[in-house]
Amino acid sequence: MGTHVSVAGIGTTDYGALGRTADDLAGEALRAALDDAGLAVTEIDGLLTHRVDSYECLAAEHGLDPRWTAQLPPEGRMTGPAIQLAATAIREGLCHTVAVVYGNDGRTRGATYGAGKSGSTAAGEGYGSTPALTAPYGLTSPGAFSALMLQRHRHLYGTSDEQLGTVATTFRTHAGRNPQALRRQPLTLEDYLASRYIVEPLRILDYCQINDGGVALVLTSADRARDLPKRPVHVLGAAQRARLTGSDLPPEDFWASALSEVGNAVRHAADRDRADVDALMAYDNFSPNVLFTLEGLGWCKPGEAGQWMADGRIGLGGELPCNTSGGQLSEGYLQGWGLVVEAVRQLRGECGARQVPGARTIQYACAAPIVSSVLLGTEA
Fold first, then answer.
1. Catalytic: which of 102, 113, 333, 364?
2. How far is the C-alpha of 241 from the C-alpha of 227, rounded, in Å?
3. Fewer beta carbons under 10 A from the terminal one: N or C of the chain?
4. DSSP 275
5. DSSP structural state of residue 309
């Protein structure tokens, strides 16, 4: 695998309606990550930005003149590939320390994903590249796309409202232990079932919430990270598999084949088994994605995720705690970056009341037209 790459620093802003630009929020997170890593800005020679307005302005404002620079498209599916790309740049010797910086001002701008802008680039989020073909049938937003997938899952496997509600209620319980989460008020299954539909069968509590926030990570070689203040968290593996052909329509296998491929790839790279994974951070822009991710990664058979989640399996203290921060459904929607930061905090043992005891290996996975997974751990 060559040079081992580690997360040496993390930084976040508050989340919510903040009234600031994406670049300002990204810059605040960058400064926090540098402080966390105990590094000066002059020690950063790589910059990868996601969703900021201008990588050039961000770099100029913070005194960055990197040897290696990249900016990725805005979709949340790019989070896993961003980590993969930054780690590769370090392993290939293109730079030695990369700041990965994300900023989002969607709540302040009043962003919505839909209303005829369901193309992935136009909306910055959605699935589907040809909305002109799908809009006449009501597929005008990422939520409608996800609802159609859930409807098919129900038809094939009998997935129930109560089973799906486990995702929202469990993640809300986790958020109640996270002071940074935006949705912390208790949520019962009865509350969930009484909530209104947005695109049936998806309810409002199945949707993530658009908000503002910034996140930054500092990645460097494991050798360098060992000399820095915080316990290194190692990037054990990172993989992606695109499913772009026909991505204007929901995938018939719920991205299962791609999830299986990337899941196996990151575990093989790290010489880990599924049983070694202590927690899962599943991209939860909509709650059905958690079911698809569990099935695709092989935690249960196709169609069995709803039943498998019963008896607290994905809750704290369960077999596979998921999205322990509250995830994007309850902590806040940060295109996957909040989930990555939560994985790092768990592996450092910094999560307090929501800590997974003895966590050593955590997997991030995103089910989307570019499926990705990252395996993080305390031991390289």
1. 333
2. 34
3. N
4. G
5. T
Half-sphere exposure of 6 (CA within 13 A, CB side): 23
Q: Is 333 a catalytic residue?
A: yes
The contacts of residue 66 (CB under 8 Å, 6+ apart) are 44, 45, 46, 47, 59, 95
Question: Could you give all domains of the chain from N- to C-terminal order, each with its CATH number?
Answer: 1-111+210-230 (3.40.47.10), 112-205+234-380 (3.40.47.10)
Catalytic residue among 113, 127, 283, 364: 283
Kind and range of the H or E element at 30? Answer: helix 22-37
Six token digits for residue 117: 């802008």
Per-residue pLDDT tens, the chain, 380 aa: give them.
568 999 999 999 999 999 999 999 999 999 999 999 999 999 999 999 999 999 999 999 999 999 999 999 999 999 999 999 999 999 999 999 999 999 999 999 998 876 544 333 333 444 554 567 777 777 788 999 999 999 999 999 999 999 999 999 999 999 999 999 999 999 999 999 999 999 999 999 999 989 999 999 999 999 999 999 999 999 999 999 999 998 888 899 999 999 999 999 999 999 999 999 999 999 999 999 999 999 999 999 999 999 999 999 999 999 999 999 999 999 999 999 999 999 999 999 999 999 999 999 999 999 999 999 999 999 98
Assess whether 283 carries a catalytic annotation.
yes
Per the CB < 8 A criterion, the answer to whether 263 and 363 are in contact is yes
Per DSSP, 42 falls in state G
How many Cβ atoms sit within 10 Å of the Cβ of residue 9? 25
Tell me the angle at which helices 337-348 and 79-91 cross, rounded to the nearest 10 degrees. 60
Handedness of CA 63, 33, 20, 56 (dihedral sign): positive
List the end-to-end C-alpha distance of the chain, in Å, as a whole number: 11
Take residue 64 and report the two structure tokens written for it.
């960055």
Give the up-direction half-sphere exposure of residue 216: CA atoms within 13 A in the CB hemisphere: 31
The DSSP result for 106-157, as a single string, is: HHHHT--S-TT--SHHHHSS-S-S-HHHHGGGT--SHHHHHHHHHHHHHHHH
Give the Cα separation of 329 and 325 in Å (integer).
Answer: 10
In b/e form, how buried is each residue of 31-54, taking b as 16+ CB within 10 angstroms? Answer: ebbbebbebeeeebbbbbbbbbee
| Under 8 Å between Cβ of 107 and 64 | no
